[in-house]
Amino acid sequence: MARGWFLGLVFLVACKASPPPPESYAELPSGLLSEEQASVVVAKVGDEVLTLSDYCAILLSMESFQRLRYTTSPEREALLDELINMTLLAQEARRRNLAGAGADPGRGKTAAKTAANTALATALRQSLGNEEALKKLVDDLRKQHVTDVNKSALSAIVVDGTGNVRRAGS
Description:
The protein has 170 residues and is mainly α. The chain has one domain (2-29, 41-167). The protein contains 7 helices and 5 strands; from the N terminus they run H-H-E-E-H-H-H-H-H-E-E-E. The chain has a 3-stranded antiparallel sheet. It has a two-stranded antiparallel ribbon with strand order 4-5. Strand 4 and strand 5 form a beta hairpin. It is elongated and about 45 Å long.
């Protein structure tokens, strides 16, 4: 779990240091995903849906040297798991009405939404006080609120040795 919080911190820094990610399929680099691929659901977290297009936008919001962490399939799957966990914790923080929980970044704006979710997840983590309680909460929330995880969809993209995101097979 400690690795997950490290990834979340790296991701938050990446969002602040990078140019804004594409906010829709139309803004993804040409040829990265087909329209059909872009709409593939990679996870449902509560009432939120994370698509392959959203996942790509998150990857693209990182600097290329940060994307080098995700060159293998298990690493890209771990990133999806961390995004799911962060979303779950942000939803729980809103339910508990923690500081800032009233802020709703909306369904679009990937970078703003992710930054808000990271802040909310951090607030919840601090309110729990220890990693054991956090791990138990995440496990319970995943059982209750996560459905339709489709890690195989991540195989449509690769991060190459220079940190570029591209369509698999190209």
